């Protein structure tokens, strides 16, 4: 798989940093780790990442709203993440249930990026 620039949207700083380390070990580059919906939208516009990993439940804002706002400017692959019970909506989205393994993450990335390759 080609190395990707990845935007991490995660309001738990420790999880965000762990994800960044895993992604970098996989050969990807993390362009930013942000914690709020507004930061996600701003950094997606600034960095134009090749992939977004987005937590569904943020302390400030909402992961799905962030994705919706970002996708108004064109398609961009993303993987949603959640440690909370799953809620309805986005039946076609790839969602990782926390905690997940590095293999689960790699498979999810492949699933959302492969159609664009």
TrEMBL record:
<dbReference type="InterPro" id="IPR050595">
    <property type="entry name" value="Bact_response_regulator"/>
</dbReference>
<protein>
    <recommendedName>
        <fullName>Response regulatory domain-containing protein</fullName>
    </recommendedName>
</protein>
<feature type="domain" description="Response regulatory">
    <location>
        <begin position="5"/>
        <end position="113"/>
    </location>
</feature>
<keyword id="KW-0902">Two-component regulatory system</keyword>
<dbReference type="Pfam" id="PF00072">
    <property type="entry name" value="Response_reg"/>
</dbReference>
<dbReference type="InterPro" id="IPR011006">
    <property type="entry name" value="CheY-like_superfamily"/>
</dbReference>
<dbReference type="GO" id="GO:0000160">
    <property type="term" value="P:phosphorelay signal transduction system"/>
</dbReference>
<keyword id="KW-0597">Phosphoprotein</keyword>
<dbReference type="InterPro" id="IPR001789">
    <property type="entry name" value="Sig_transdc_resp-reg_receiver"/>
</dbReference>
<feature type="modified residue" description="4-aspartylphosphate">
    <location>
        <position position="55"/>
    </location>
</feature>
């Amino acid at each position: 798989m080609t190395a990707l620039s990845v935007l991490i949207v995660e309001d738990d700083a420790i999880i965000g940093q762990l994800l960044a380390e895993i992604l970098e070990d996989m050969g990807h580059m993390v362009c930013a780790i942000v914690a709020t919906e507004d930061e996600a939208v701003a950094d997606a516009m600034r960095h134009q990442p090749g992939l977004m990993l987005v937590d569904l439940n943020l302390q400030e804002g909402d992961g799905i709203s962030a994705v919706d706002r970002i996708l108004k400017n064109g398609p961009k692959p993303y993987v949603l993440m959640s440690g909370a019970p799953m809620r309805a909506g986005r039946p076609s989205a790839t969602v990782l249930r926390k905690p997940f393994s590095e293999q689960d993450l790699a498979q999810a990335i492949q699933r959302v990026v492969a159609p664009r390759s």
